[in-house]
Amino acid sequence: MEVKKNPKKDLNKSSGVFFAAGLAMVLALTYVALEWKTFYGTEFINVAQNVDEELIEELELFEIEQPKPPEQQAAPEVIEVVEDEVEVEESVIESTESDEDTEVMEVEDVQFEEEPVDVEVPFAVIENVPVFPGCENEKDKRACFNTMMQKHIVKNFRYPEIAQEMGVQGRVSVMFTIQKDGSIGNVRMRGPDKNLEKEAARIIGKLPKMTPGNQRGTPVRVPFAIPITFKLSN
Question: Where do the coiled-coil regions begin and end (predicted)?
Fold first, then answer.
């Protein structure tokens, strides 16, 4: 048996109309919901209702006093004129120009005091080198000085025991100055170890007093440098 449909009873015939109507209604409700405005009542809200009354009682009002403007002194009605009775001595400026009656000192009568010259002249360029004791009668005092220095170092040389135990060796550069009175000063060392530097300073400290170096007949300070080599034997 065939089932026949009635064309007048088709349920899908008006579905599009109902869908469009429903969509329009939903959009309308959404618009109304978004544009809806609410207003609070005019009832006064006390913002101080949660404030502790004890804190309010402790606050004290204070006033700031404005400084009073300074009082203006009234000008005197009568101005008195006081005469200046103090006498002022006028300073007289004497002329420094000489005239015919002025006596002029002769140049020969003027005495000049020569200030001592404190300079250093290197050992290599000084006119008269310092004289090491024992080189007074030598013709080449510069060569004799170097020879006596080497003898002095060999005679007083002593290798520090702590440096030997540590195996420390090397060259110590010693710089000192022969002062204007022939003494030794301004001793400086530079080497690989403090113990070697200390020994080099001890050797230089034993140098005898010398005849100071002269430059143009004037005693001057003469700096001098010499290396001292510390080498351990195999």
Answer: none
